[in-house]
Amino acid sequence: MSKPILNKLSEDIVNKIAAGEVVERPSSVVKELLDNAIDAQATEIEIKVVNGGIDLIEISDNGIGIPKDNLGEIFDSHTTSKISSIEDLNTLMSMGFRGEALSSITSVSKVKVVSKYVDEKIGNEVSFEGAKSSVKSSPKESGTTVRVENIFYNIPARQKYLKSAQTEYRKIYELLSKYILVYPNIAFKLFKDGKKVLDIKSVEGKVGDIKKERIKDVMGDIDLIEIKSEGEGTKISGLIAHPSSHSNTAKQIMYVNNRNIYDKGIARAVYEGYSRFLPFGQKVSFIINIQIRPELIDVNVHPRKEEIRFQNPYRVYMAIEEAVRYALEKELSYKKEPVNIGKTFQSIRENFNNGGERIRDISFNKKYTSVKDSLLFSKEILTEQEIKPSDDIRNIFQIFDKYIVIEFIDERLWIIDQHAAAERINFERLTNREKGSQYIQTLLVPIEINLTKEQILFVDEYKRFFEEIGFKIDINEKNINLLTIPSHLSNNDLDALFNEIFSLTDDIETLSKDFKRLKEDILATVACHGSVRSGQALDEQEMRNIFKTLMDCSNPYSCPHGRPAIWKLTLSDIDKNFERTY
Ligand code: ADP
Ligand code: MG
After folding, report:
1. Are residues 265 and 388 in the same domain?
2. Which of 218, 286, 305, 429 sits CB 3.0–4.6 Å from 240 for a disulfide?
3. What is the pTM of this model?
4. Which ligand 1 atom is the nearest neighbour of the CA of 104?
5. Distance from residue 173's CA to the centre of ligand 1 (Å)
6. pLDDT exceeding 70 applies to what percent of the chain?
């Protein structure tokens, strides 16, 4: 084996290696140049790209410009006007700070900068092609133009990794759209191979405000909900997709102090906030901007500044999760007139308790004739109300004994999963019952359920919770006796129900420990039992009742397990599918 020799790399090679970390592809150049224009307080930015940016990237801004004296040094590595000491990072609000971008770009391409500083009379230019030129005067009215040609012309190894011009262009476009979203105060123009492809005027608003006018271009036409929260040096704002807006491609855009970054924890926190509002595995689009005091983050952790580090990530994530959940809860409580089911039920119960025959003032389904059976399946509760045909429904019918299809007069078409809907309705009733309303049936003969010792201890420990949701329970040595049950349940369902509750987790210890989290799962399980099933034929009144009651739920869009309950379509969705344009 030949003896290893240590080589001291030349400055040129060192620069090229370092540049590789900053300049990965044409879009990285665009990013650095946009950051520089923004740091120079530009309000108009024009971008020209040729051949996906591989042949040319030229960015012009109307910012403050570069003083003549500085022009000779902007290509030197670690030369910046933005910081002078490491402490400055604690108060940093600029995009750049390393003084590396221009020097990196010059080591992999040919660069020319023309600029006029605001307080000087004439413009100047400097260029770099293997070595830097001297500074000479040049006509320029205001701002700065940076022209970058032939990226990686001197590093064939990197050239090989460039994708097609089309792909590189797409990456530039995607990058630019993130700037467009967060800088409403800046007008952007984009030219692709000589053709103007974007001309976006500035809109009222300050940096960091995500404006409706700009969202449509970037996110497409989706239903978005605003989120907001503030506290402890951190302000969170943004927009999240409505849970009903199913899209195959989810755009997840995040900013910290207007800097576009990616952080897995933020994405996770958003999804946590969505839990129970979103079918498992469904993707959602969102835009989140976190304004945070600069000393609470480290921006100097990634060569292309695509990531940042939070001093206290957990606090930020919690705030995001809460902001998302709060916004969803608020948005989805889609309240119309309250449906008064409680009262009707109360009257049944009173009649029943009086020992008399149930007074047939309510149209019960003929299928359940015995007193025991007629004790209120959820379906029955739904049919109790006199719901008049709603004016905006043109047609309502059932398909496959499973889905309710509703045609509205305003060209909307909804498909409702009848079981998911019934579960949601029962779930919300149970949750509300916790808050004191009553849909409880008293059993004439208590029902005995055999449980293990551990299970009995668990029920005993959470007796109050069970009572609040409608189970009044007598605890015995070897079993429990149910004295009351939630009204939507039928008696013969109860063994299975309790078994299912205990199979939510293998370990009863965790059931106790995690009770807060499991409470919702228990509620969901109780809601599921006794709900209208798929495979059950419904008549029109029943369908209308399900629809109406579902609309009174605070989140009608998914069942408590998170599966969707409603699929919203419009006539134009259907037309589009048939490629009909008229
Ligand atoms: P950094 O942005 O980290 O300071 P750069 O290499 O990107 O480093 O830029 C070096 C310096 O050149 C900046 O600090 C700034 O003073 C100046 N500069 C670069 N681009 C512009 C521009 N478009 N307008 C005004 N000044 C600029
Ligand atoms: Mg910079």
Report:
1. no
2. 286
3. 0.65
4. 6
5. 22
6. 85
